[in-house]
Write a structure and sequence with these properties.
With 283 residues, this protein is α+β, with helices and mostly antiparallel strands. The chain has 2 domains: 2-119 and 259-276, Probable inorganic polyphosphate/atp-NAD kinase, domain 1 (Rossmann fold), CATH 3.40.50.10330; 122-254, Tumour Suppressor Smad4 (Sandwich). The chain is built from 6 helices and 19 strands. It has helices spanning 12-27, 53-56, 66-76, 102-110, 183-186, 268-276; strands at 2-7, 31-34, 46-47, 59-64, 83-87, 116-119, 122-127, 134-138, 141-145, 153-159, 162-169, 171-175, 198-204, 214-217, 222-226, 232-236, 240-244, 249-254, 259-262. The protein has a 6-stranded antiparallel beta sheet, with no helix packed on it. α1 packs parallel to α4 (102-110). It is globular. The mean pLDDT is 94.
Length: 283
Amino acid sequence: MRFGFLLKRGKPEARAIAAELGRVLRQRGCEIVALEEDASAFSDAKVVAPERLGASIDALAVLGGDGTFLYGAGLVADDGVPLLGINLGSLGFLTHYSRTEAASAVEEASQGRLPVDERMRLRVTIRSGGGQAESRSVVNDAVISQRSLARLLDLDARLDGASIAVYKADGLIVSTPTGSTAYTLAAGGPILTPNLEAIVLTPICPHTLTNRPLVVRADAQLTVGNLSGSPVTLTVDGQWGRELAPGDTIEVRKTERPLRIFRAPSSFFSILRQKLSWGERQV
């Protein structure tokens, strides 16, 4: 089995843990693959470029937080490679395994004994007047927001061509079920279990009280146009951003290939209780 590694930058602990996991995997006959900046953590890793990582491995271990995990998903999810997240960050909604669970988790994964779950992803395509279309895949969310000044935006949202609303708000979050516990939750959106297939639209500080978060079916085409008089910012998974000029539009559709994640050692609601104190009585 070819096991890839992606390490959180500036985290010496990640390199030490990766070296130990590499020894565990080599004892199982696995090949270790890493990006150039991570390869020195191992004695004999095969070095590949980021754009070749997904095609060069059968599984990817991510040592870091959710940001590192999202970066890794952007590199390998289109190739169907499952990711195993080892949490060295704070919240860790996607990096399910602790430091103490890491060795047994990678060993189980290398032997095909660790189940893999699938998560719906989205693809966001920017359509601009006369410009070349750009696309990016989404694990958590795509966010349209102000660039700098505290000013209301006008965002025209449509589902399969039918008008949803023209949102007057500070911005709009388009989220997957996986991302429902991220920014959209802080903005008042609903929590969706990650095995659902749906899209969540959550306005950020809407000017109209009736503009509430909305859940729509996953197989539809969602479009959001910038009707504002100035450019706005599109940010995808906190990893990639582009400016949307007045008149520019984004198209959002479900991707054909889902994100594949090695199953968490505890249930989704256990994770909510641990990370967000879900269901606990406040005194």
